[in-house]
Structure formats: structure tokens, C-alpha cells
Design brief:
This protein has 365 residues and is α/β, with parallel strands linked by helices. It has 2 domains: 186 residues, Rossmann fold (3-Layer(aba) Sandwich); 168 residues, Glycogen Phosphorylase B (Rossmann fold). Helix content is 41%, strand content 16%. The protein contains 16 helices and 12 strands. A 6-stranded parallel β-sheet has the order 2-1-3-4-5-6, with helices on both faces. Strands 9-8-7-10-11-12 form a 6-stranded parallel β-sheet, with helices on both faces. The longest helix has 15 residues.
């Protein structure tokens, strides 16, 4: 009888990688002994969104003691419940790391209607819907009506949003920030050229072309700087990375995916400025990690960034980014002695832990 009371959370993740993996692992660790984890590897996310519900319908046992099911919006939750109607009695919590209604697509490429549709009907099947940022929630809810305009007829009305909205809330992704004493590099007294870091997925939606265009301009103007380019590459890595690695080999300190968090944090602690040029960002874990280790952030004034970072750290255009980096190359002490105005602690696991615990302490099932 005791085991029936303990095993009460099913953690289900169809794309077990990046922030998706970090969140599931964090919950599993915190609720040790109270949950079971079901997951698929972080490959071919398109296929995970299309077919993972069938996999989990077979994987989750028919005999269980779960009161809660926690999953990300990569899973078609409505389809899972349709295949496994016994899961209707379980409280279903849906977490949005991103949303497919405004997820950017490449030029000359049509948006796949099915991905966004899956997420919308998953919301109808969920009991609680969580978003990692207000930007994520607002863009999702405000885009539902226009999204369905792609349908030739029989479009749902505004009552659909009214049904989904009451179930929604913002609950930031919890970050386990590194300990400062382990990575303190004495930035304020540091000498030498400015160290710039770019730490994002190596994909087109992070706009690496703009970032490297700015660096090429700095080099043409004979500014000295050091460079670390980190992050995970997948099957379609933009060509600019290989070209820039060759052209900037004398500037490079760190390059590519860091095998351990310790290596990644060490590289961030050695850098002075963390840059984002993203065309898509619903949260931005690596930028917050960089700031926690003392990096001065430079982010575009769009997406989630104005929600997280004060105006001082935002730029409007590529030329503004170039101007800021040019200034910092001339005077690196401007960033090394700067007192950061970003409260990263409110995004920490320690701060958010109680809110996550409350999800699984409701009396009703």
C-alpha cells in the first residue's frame, strides 16, 4: 500500500535533451521516490511531435498509481489520452518550453500546421498549462485565432481561447546556477582583450550570420578580441560556423559543444560579454547562466529579452550591437567593472522550488 502512495507522478518527455531534459531531471531528483520517468531521446523533434504519443501509450503501464502526469508541449497530449482513456483521471500538466504558433521557419518553407495544432488540442486535454515566460504565453494565446485562419473552413471561434486561457499560468524554467566560488576569475582586475561569448544552438533561428557579420566588422576595423562559440549543433549546422572558425582561429578560446557543465561554466566565467542575436527565444537559459557568472549581456530588443533584461542590455539593430562591442573592445573595463542589474535569482531552482512542489500537492486528482 505504501508504494501506491509514493509513485504518484509520471514524468513524460518526448524530446529528452537541452532544457527539456534539465527540467525532467530536476523534478525527478526533487521528487525522488515519488515519480517514474518515461522519455525518448532528443533526435528528430519533428517526428517526436508527430508520433511520440503512440510510443508512450504503449510504454506507460496499464496498472499505475499516478495522480499527476507532467509533460512538455512536444507531446500530443490529446492523442495520448485518446489512445489511453484511462489517463483521463490523472491530473495532466503541460509545460511549454516553446510554442509552434510563432516558431520561426526558414524562407520559402511553409509552416507545418500539424505541430501548432497538436499543441492547441493538447491544451484542451490538459488540466494545467504552464509557460516558461509571459512572452511565450502571450504569443501562443494571441496567435490561436490567426493560426486557424490557415484552415479552409470550419474554423473554431474565440470560445477556444476562452476555454484554454483559464488553465494557463507562467512558471519560469528553474535554473540550477553554478556556484560563484568555483568559477570566480576576478573579472574586475582582468587585463587583455575583450572576451566575447555566443552560447546557443547552432541553428538558423539563433541568427549566427548577424553575430559573425559583426565580428568580421570588428576584425576589419583591427579591434582585438577573444571569442568563445559554444552550443549544440544538429544535422543542419549553418555554413557560417565552419568559415568563421577558420577565419577567426587566432581569436578562439573555446569552440563547439562543451562535454560537461563544468567546462561550459568555466568558459562563461572567462568571458566578458555574452551576445544573443536570436530570431527565436522564449526564455534563454544560457544567457541567464552567463549573467550569473558575471557576463555583460547584449540581447536584441525583441522576443522574451525585454521581459528579463533591463533596457541597458538591449539593442535594436545590428549596427547598434556593433557599436556597443566596438566600445567594449576599446575599453573592456566598462563591462569588467560593471555591476549587473539583472536579478537572476528569481529564475533559480531555489526560488521556484516551492511553486513546482505546489503543482503536485493539490488535493483533487
Amino acid at each position: 500500500m505504501e508504494s501506491e502512495e509514493i509513485r504518484h507522478i509520471a514524468l513524460v518527455e518526448s524530446f529528452y535533451g537541452g532544457s527539456h531534459r534539465q527540467l525532467i531531471d530536476l523534478l525527478e531528483k526533487n521528487f525522488s521516490g515519488s515519480c517514474d520517468k518515461y522519455y525518448m531521446t532528443d533526435k528528430k523533434w519533428h517526428w517526436r511531435m508527430r508520433t511520440s504519443s503512440f510510443h508512450f501509450a504503449q510504454k506507460i503501464p496499464k496498472k499505475y498509481n499516478y495522480r499527476y502526469l507532467f509533460t512538455s508541449a512536444n507531446l500530443n497530449l490529446a492523442e495520448l489520452v485518446g489512445l489511453r482513456p484511462d489517463l483521463c483521471k490523472v491530473k495532466k500538466i503541460l509545460y511549454f518550453h516553446e510554442n509552434q504558433l510563432v516558431y520561426p521557419v526558414r524562407k520559402k518553407q511553409e509552416r507545418d500546421f500539424q505541430y501548432g495544432y497538436n499543441q492547441i488540442i493538447s491544451c484542451l486535454a490538459a488540466d494545467i498549462i504552464l509557460f516558461n515566460s509571459a512572452y511565450n504565453q502571450e504569443t501562443f494565446l494571441s496567435s490561436i485565432k490567426s493560426f486557424f485562419n490557415l484552415m479552409p473552413d470550419h474554423r473554431p471561434g474565440k470560445e477556444l481561447v476562452e476555454e484554454i486561457k483559464p488553465k494557463c499560468e507562467v512558471l519560469h524554467f528553474p535554473i540550477s546556477f553554478p556556484r560563484h566560488d568555483l568559477y570566480d576569475r576576478g573579472r574586475a582586475t582582468r587585463d587583455g582583450p575583450l572576451h566575447i561569448v555566443w552560447a546557443h544552438r547552432w541553428e538558423h533561428d539563433k541568427d549566427p550570420d548577424t553575430f559573425f557579420d559583426v565580428l568580421y566588422s570588428l576584425k576589419e576595423e583591427k579591434y582585438d578580441f577573444k571569442l568563445s562559440v559554444m552550443g549544440q549543433g544538429f544535422t543542419d549546422v549553418p555554413e557560417i560556423f565552419e568559415r568563421a572558425r577558420s577565419d577567426m582561429k587566432e581569436n578562439i578560446v573555446a569552440w563547439g559543444f562543451q562535454e560537461t557543465k563544468a567546462e561550459f561554466f568555466t568558459a562563461l566565467a572567462d568571458a566578458d560579454v555574452a551576445v544573443s542575436t536570436a530570431l527565436h527565444e522564449f526564455y534563454g537559459v544560457s544567457m541567464l547562466e552567463a549573467v550569473s557568472l558575471g557576463c555583460y549581456p547584449l540581447c536584441p530588443r525583441r522576443l522574451v529579452y525585454p521581459e528579463i533584461f533591463p533596457d541597458d542590455y538591449l539593442y535594436n539593430t545590428k549596427n547598434q550591437l556593433l557599436k556597443r562591442l566596438r566600445q567594449f573592445c576599446k575599453r573592456p573595463e566598462l563591462v569588467r567593472r560593471h555591476h549587473l542589474k539583472v536579478d537572476v535569482e528569481k529564475f533559480s531552482w531555489e526560488h521556484l522550488k516551492g511553486k513546482y512542489e505546489a503543482l503536485f500537492q493539490a488535493n483533487e486528482c
